[in-house]
Amino acid sequence: MMDDRSKSLLKTLIEHYIADGQPVGSRALSKFSGLDLSAATIRNVMADLEEMGFVASPHTSAGRIPTDKGYRHFVDSITPQGVLAAEEASQVGDFFKGTHGRLEDLLRHTTTLLANITHHTAVVVGPEAEKTTVLAVHISRVTPRSATVVVVLSNHNVENETIQMSEDISDNHIASAVQHVSRHLVARSLGDISSVPSTNDAHVDAVCFATINALSRHRNDQPVFVGGASSLANAFDAVDVVRDVLSTIEQQFVVVTLLQDLLDRGLSVAIGAEHGVEPLSACSVVVSPVMADGEIVGSVGVLGPTRMNYPQALTTVEVVSEQLGRHIAEGVS
After folding, report:
1. H and E: helices and strands count for the chain
2. 146 - beta bridge partners?
3. Closest by Cα among 239, 120, 210, 102 to 159
4. Terminal-to-terminal C-alpha distance of the chain
5. pLDDT in tens, 229-285
6. 64 beta partners
């Protein structure tokens, strides 16, 4: 059990180490902690903290660095301010005021925004297509043997697919197919759509079948965007660590599962091995759900080295996820 003096010194050590990445010695702790303690007393406290597993001593230095356990204590003891610095708040505000267009573009640009502010790798996961409902269906002929199916979804995304048709299908057949498909698809979940009843017109049924088949490709879609991967590469000296980290974040399923698992466990921060993804054991993850109309529709997170600025990362992720959810709920365009 740590006393207040030990907690204060640990906090000072972690903040100092986050700032410059160098092991922190007794002299620096005496200078920055604001405590009237002798160097001998500070060394004794550091020895106790090391014995408890909160700090470690690199072989090349007399100073100490935080361990994952130390970071965990630090994170659990801080309260995110919920307010960004003026410059960062301006970036976020200007971004969401000026963003228009497709949901996919919003998510992609949000990833870039988050990576630029935190200087870490950013991940944005959008709404699953399976959970969205169909708002409108349009089919337009492109050539005598092909047409474009356009579907507007409740997550504000628009999907486009090309379907093939026989030349004897007329524009009237296509119009009838649009009416029939719309009657059975609009307001239904994309994940529930597998077929529509027959119209007893082979040509219309052919267009309907091709449309349903094209939409089936999007049932399990969940847009995932990763930005700022180079930040992770610059954060580690060991080539094998960089290779493992970059290889892992390229696997979208792993990233989505990781963020969802943390949210399911009620975590906003996972430090080092806490998240259970071994190739990312040198990283920490900060995540926040994206809420729209009272429902979780995605997630926003950053991945960085365990030596990250946790207060800034927590606040940024929280603010961006809140703004993104509000933007999705109000409509992207």
Report:
1. 12, 10
2. 143, 164
3. 102
4. 54
5. 878 777 887 788 888 888 888 787 788 889 999 999 988 999 999 998 998 999 999
6. 24
What is the pLDDT confidence band of residue 60, given thresholds at 50, 70 and 90? low
Closest by Cα among 270, 269, 279 to 245 = 279
Q: Tell me which of 25 and 251 has the higher pLDDT.
A: 25
Contacts of 331 (CB under 8 A, 6+ apart): 156
Three-state DSSP at 170 gives coil
- Do the Cβ atoms of 321 and 300 come closer than 8 Å? yes
Helix axes 26-33, 39-52, angle to 10 degrees: 100
CB-based contacts of 174-177 (< 8 A; 24+ apart in sequence):
174/139, 174/141, 174/147, 174/207, 176/201, 176/204, 177/139, 177/204, 177/207, 177/208, 177/211
Q: Do residues 146 and 165 make contact, with C-beta atoms less than 8 angstroms apart? A: yes
Measured distance CA(160)–CA(138) in Å, rounded: 10
Average pLDDT over residues 37-57: 92
Name which of 171, 122, 121, 163 is nearest 145 in CA terms.
163
